[in-house]
Amino acid sequence: MRLLDTARYAFSALRERRGRSVLTILGIAIGSGLIIALVSMGEGINTTVTGRLLLLGANNIIILPAQGSNIQFTDADVQRISVIPEVTAVAPFYSAVAEFYVGGVKVSGRILGIDPLQLQIIFPGIKILEGETPPPTSASQVSVGYKVAFPPAVQTTSKLYVGQPIVISASTAGGIKTGSFTVTGIYDRFGASLFFDADSAVVMPLPAARKLLGQTSYQAILVNTERIEAVDYIISELERMYGRSVNIISPTTILQTVRSIIASFTIFLALIASVSLLVAGLGIMNTMIMSVMERTREIGILRSIGMTRREVLFTFLFEAVLTGLVGGLIGLGLGTLLSIGFGRYAGNFLRFGPQFEPLPLEPAITPQLLIGTLLFAILVGSLSGLYPARRAAQVDPVRALRTE
Amino acid sequence: METNSQYAIILEDVWKVYRVGKTSYPALQGLTLRVERGEMLSVMGPSGSGKSTLLHIAGTLDRPTSGRVIIEGIDVSGLSDAELSEVRNKHIGFVFQSFNLINRLSAVENVALPLAVRGVSYEERVEAALNALKLVGLDGAAGKRPTELSGGEQQRVAIARALVGNPRILLADEPTGNLDSKNTEIIVSLLREINERLGTTVVIVTHNPEVAEKCDRLVRLRDGRVESEVVLHA
Ligand SMILES: Nc1ncnc2c1ncn2[C@@H]1O[C@H](COP(=O)(O)OP(=O)(O)OP(=O)(O)O)[C@@H](O)[C@H]1O
Ligand SMILES: [Mg+2]
């Protein structure tokens, strides 16, 4: 028997028991639709959260001298690190807890001594609200974070303005160092970040920081990569280069934990959905067993006109596969609709906290997911059909033809 | 293994013993029967005498417990399921008392089914099926479902299905058992016509003496053996 004819015959049998076939197909459709909806949602959440964490600087690595080590970071180190594969930017910096005095008002925060042109690495997308960033070579100018300019505890009248002097007292290992600088710019509100609070920082070009802190070597180096997957590799390279003389700080471990939690949760949901697909498979098996019993006589007829046992098996198996295929195809549509609907709705709940904007949630409906789910539905169909089909093949034709 | 024998069917010392638990039911007890090519034979006998069992074994649907079975010169004793199925598909057409059509398929689809099993293309087998329906005078009912046909018509569709693959042997188990005398007459004439025009060997199991009368020879079974035989038309 040709494959197309087997398919045709199986289809006619499914159509004859329309009501039952529709129900079993529906079971498969719901099972595979759930898999697609849940997995694509999980993937979507993962992508959104990862993207958010990347914005916060999760693709940054900080390397700083270890406690008690006398290593001194210089431009030679910056050069060495920047040639590591996957490293996209290297920014040496200084940082210290500091107090700022503006027109008699005291604000606490941090100074961040860095090439202002590289500030975007730490604070991607940060914008100047007023004025401009100081030139990288300046030793006397700074730009300030939003909360430094507009301290929440202070009246707006004491607002700091561009061109105003600012006195900075930074705490260092060698005691408190104080200096006076000119404010050239104010940054807009930035929000949370993993390493620094941009809003309460004063950003100073490297010469300015060196002058204030009295240091010649860099305090730390920020290493940036575009691919979050490369972070581990870069860390291992840095460890190979510097051994125990440095500390390496990387938020990717946090990110990886978050991602693996979301991934396990997605797998958990997928498993539940798979169970529903397997239950639908039991439904196929059940209807097929019934069908084989009801169609014993038909099997006898098929054998009498020369169908082999194997062909009987294939014919019945094909019905199950067809159920899985059609159910799976409907499931693809159903799952896609579900996850799009879900995505619109669930985005409102996905945020880091009440003060944050809801995250845009884009369910990840990948071709792999669709094809994989369809194959799974077909597999479930064929596995469920295997036992009934074998029973059909084993029907004794003589006995089948005797049954009235 | 194919020999140019003059016999379409040879059954030699065929036994068929059914075992249910510890009890044995011998359906055939050393039955020997030869059916010549082109012969039209009727088989009669009381209920339980083994007539259906004989047809099933001659039609390779069933295997004997012991004995030799040669169909169209092929010794089928050692054949596999696939090989037996091929013998059935190519050489044998079955007709049953209860028609045994598949109700969800139209008449022409039912008739074409043996050719579909054989792997014949759709166009080719539909054409052959329409020809077979024409032969039984039902080409007008090709698109009808069995449930839309009378008993006599259904049996004629079943005969068309048995014929569609040009088998050498037609085995009919009480083909008129469910029909009235008029339809019985039609079916028997049809079988006779097929036998004469196509040279098909026909074996009819029947309880109806009028059916047996139309055949060349009558074999009576009792207790799974040939009890007697009569040659009616030479
Ligand atoms: N599967 C089986 N198990 C046990 N006994 C069986 C089985 N099939 C048939 N028999 C027995 O074999 C014997 C012959 O049966 P068979 O059907 O060949 O008789 P028959 O001549 O066709 O009868 P009828 O005229 O009623 O159709 C009967 O006694 C029957 O009970
Ligand atoms: Mg019988």
Could you explain the architecture of this structure?
The complex is a heterodimer of chains A (404) and B (234). By secondary structure, chain A is α+β, with helices and mostly antiparallel strands. Chain A is 52% helix and 19% strand. Chain A is built from twelve helices and ten strands. In chain A, strand 6 (165-172) and strand 7 form a beta hairpin. In chain A, helix 8 packs parallel to helix 11 (367-394). The radius of gyration of chain A is 33 Å and the shape is elongated. The mean pLDDT of chain A is 87. Chain B has 234 residues and is an alpha/beta fold. Chain B has a single domain, classed as Rossmann fold (3-Layer(aba) Sandwich), CATH 3.40.50. Chain B has seven helices and ten strands. In chain B, the strands form two sheets. Chain B has a six-stranded mixed sheet, with helices on both faces. Bound molecules: adenosine-5'-triphosphate and magnesium ion. Residues 51-52, 173 of chain B line the site of magnesium ion.
Could you give a short description of this structure?
By secondary structure, chain A is an alpha+beta fold. Chain A is built from 12 helices and 10 strands.
Layout of SSEs?
The complex is a heterodimer of chains A (404) and B (234).
Chain A: H1 3-16, H2 18-55, E1 60-65, H3 75-82, E2 87-102, E3 105-114, H4 119-122, E4 128-131, E5 141-144, H5 146-149, E6 165-172, E7 175-187, E8 201-204, H6 206-213, E9 220-225, H7 231-242, E10 246-249, H8 252-294, H9 296-304, H10 309-346, H11 367-394, H12 397-402
Chain B: E1 7-20, E2 23-36, E3 40-44, H1 51-58, E4 66-71, E5 74-75, H2 81-91, E6 92-95, H3 107-118, H4 122-135, H5 151-163, E7 169-173, H6 181-198, E8 201-205, H7 209-213, E9 217-222, E10 225-231
Parallel strand pairs in B: 3-8, 3-9, 6-7, 7-8
Antiparallel strand pairs in B: 1-2, 1-4, 4-5, 9-10
Bound molecules: adenosine-5'-triphosphate and magnesium ion (MG).
Magnesium ion is lined by residues 51-52, 173 of chain B.
